[in-house]
Amino acid sequence: MVPSLTPEQIEKHIAGVTDVQHLGQGGQKAVYRCIVNKEPFAIKFSHSPDGVPSANPDSTEMEEDPDVIVRARREVETMRDCKSEHMVKLGPIGLQFVEIEGESLLYFTEELIYGEDLSAWQRANGPLEVPEVIRLGLHITDAIKSLWELGKIHRDIKPGNIMRRTNGDFVLLDAGLAFDVAGESLSGGFLVGTRIYFSPEQFDYSNRRTGLDFRSDMFALGVTMYEMLTGVHPFWKRGSSSETFFSNVTTLTPRKPSELIKNVPESLDEIILRLLGKAPHLRYRKCDQLINALKKLEVQ
Known about the structure:
Elements: H1 7-13, E1 17-26, E2 29-36, E3 39-47, H2 67-81, E4 96-100, E5 103-111, E6 115-117, H3 118-125, H4 130-149, E7 152-153, E8 162-165, E9 170-172, E10 179-180, H5 208-211, H6 214-230, H7 242-251, H8 266-275, H9 287-298
Helix pairs in contact: 4-6, 4-9, 6-8
């Protein structure tokens, strides 16, 4: 359940936060705009299931916390540590806990991004033009590269988690499902993320520790680029059964984007279809290889 708070409640209980406005919700979080130190930020709230922890909220000892708190800590740490300008940044308030009107909540601030997520953008405007899809690929690959330098993969790259700034740049959001390949898994045998953007190897939980790396994020980026370029998902359509979708992801080679819309360069077809390779080794071995391929296409 998403917390239901009024701006007045937030301003009353959280020092230094003013001019609060409700923006919406994402996942299990309520999202508001606010002012902190005379600067605008987003502030996000979610329920703390076992009450307000008595331990220092900045502690790195996470084993005893409920999973939702551990995930929040990972999200905050990822935003703090990731150096890419195309990954949303942590705001001045890190992870904190508060009780408001009997509700135990956790909250943090992050960069306020002016623009629309790509799902909303596509509903309002249709597919992106080829130069924008190339820029989308460059910007999100930069974020994937920076995450992997931390030993992390995002696991939930999709149009709804990518913002298009008003200046046309793209920013990756919501690192709440970020997977630390050197850390402890929090998914307890369950598949987490948005399944229609899963790579084939994400369905194999038994191979999760050794089978997942940045190339799974590349696959999700490929699905996103395909969808934003053509207006259709390469493996899924509304009404598809889970069995059909799984079969498509693991066996189907999608049609080239250029077969669906006009004026798609052959080299962009090749990049996107390579990203959609069924096994990680069929994709790019390094993020820089993908970045270089997109930069060559950008100047053509």
